[in-house]
């Protein structure tokens, strides 16, 4: 499949962002730099932060959806997505709109949005495989996964994807199902191990090996994310449950090997 490239002409878009937490703020800085027109709404009051960025903060969802957004970008938490979407007055939309999400699971938001969106609205599901920490020095070489679920306005869709391609992201097109299969084996497993290490309260010692230092980095990295994210990765990725079972079986297998050798 063809992917957008950084040589494509940049199209300035009118982008409305729902959920203006740290990750949305991180994305917004680059979008503003590229010349896009941004407006935000959120359950929490980010009016002062938006004022510092020079963008409008709109508390009323009716007014937000009436604002001629070409793209509506959902940056909510995984656990709150359904409630947010159910409360949206889609009848206020003035034009066919591209809806996009950046959640860390993909089948779930795809299904929720396909059920709720007006049939004339387009949908692209994305997962930027980076965040404020890993992307603080730029996005070059970092991966954006996406699936064009329902696209009729190719110009707006290409313009949205160009936000990432123009920054040098690796553009990876795959299905939401394939993403969730792979994410369960990588992201969810990483979070599981990090949470276990956090429960053990591991700390650096004067004789740390390089391997332990990497384990501590995993624990610290996971600690920067909320438990709600970890919960969402488990509850709304159907492949995560099997990975948790695999982890338990593997741990028991290693433990039994140790006990068997000790008994020998």
UniProtKB/TrEMBL annotation:
One of its GO terms (molecular function) is arogenate dehydrogenase (NADP+) activity. Keywords: Oxidoreductase. Pfam families: PDH_N (PF02153), TYRAAT1_C (PF26213). GO terms for biological process: tyrosine biosynthetic process. The keyword Oxidoreductase applies. InterPro entries: NAD(P)-bd_dom_sf, PDH_N, Prephen_DH, TYRAAT1/2, TYRAAT2_C. It comes from the Eukaryota. Residues 13-264 form the Prephenate/arogenate dehydrogenase domain. This is Arogenate dehydrogenase 1, chloroplastic isoform X2. PROSITE patterns: PDH_ADH (PS51176). PANTHER family: AROGENATE DEHYDROGENASE 1, CHLOROPLASTIC-LIKE (PTHR43207:SF3), AROGENATE DEHYDROGENASE-RELATED (PTHR43207).
């Amino acid at each position: 499949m063809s992917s957008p490239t950084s040589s494509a002409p940049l199209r300035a878009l009118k982008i409305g962002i729902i959920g203006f937490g740290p990750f949305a703020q991180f994305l917004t800085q680059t979008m503003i730099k590229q010349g896009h027109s941004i407006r935000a709404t959120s359950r929490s009051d980010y009016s002062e932060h938006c004022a510092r960025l020079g963008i409008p903060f709109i508390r009323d969802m009716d007014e937000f959806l009436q604002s001629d957004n070409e793209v509506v970008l959902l940056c909510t938490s995984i656990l709150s997505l359904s409630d947010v979407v159910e409360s949206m007055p889609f009848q206020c939309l003035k034009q066919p709109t591209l809806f996009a999400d950046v959640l860390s699971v993909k089948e779930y938001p795809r299904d929720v949005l396909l059920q709720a969106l007006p049939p004339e609205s387009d949908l692209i599901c994305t997962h930027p495989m980076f965040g404020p920490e890993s992307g603080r020095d730029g996005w070059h070489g970092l991966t954006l996964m996406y699936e064009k679920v329902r696209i009729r306005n190719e110009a707006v869709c290409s313009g949205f994807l160009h936000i990432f391609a123009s920054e040098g992201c690796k553009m990876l097109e795959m299905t939401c199902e394939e993403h969730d299969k792979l994410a369960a084996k990588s992201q969810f497993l990483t979070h599981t191990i990090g949470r276990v290490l956090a429960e053990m309260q591991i700390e650096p010692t004067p004789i740390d090996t390089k391997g332990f230092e990497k384990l501590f980095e995993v624990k610290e990295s996971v600690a920067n994310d909320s438990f709600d994210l970890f919960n969402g990765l488990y509850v709304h990725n159907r492949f995560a449950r099997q990975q948790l079972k695999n982890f338990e079986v593997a741990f028991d297998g290693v433990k039994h090997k140790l006990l068997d050798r000790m008994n020998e």
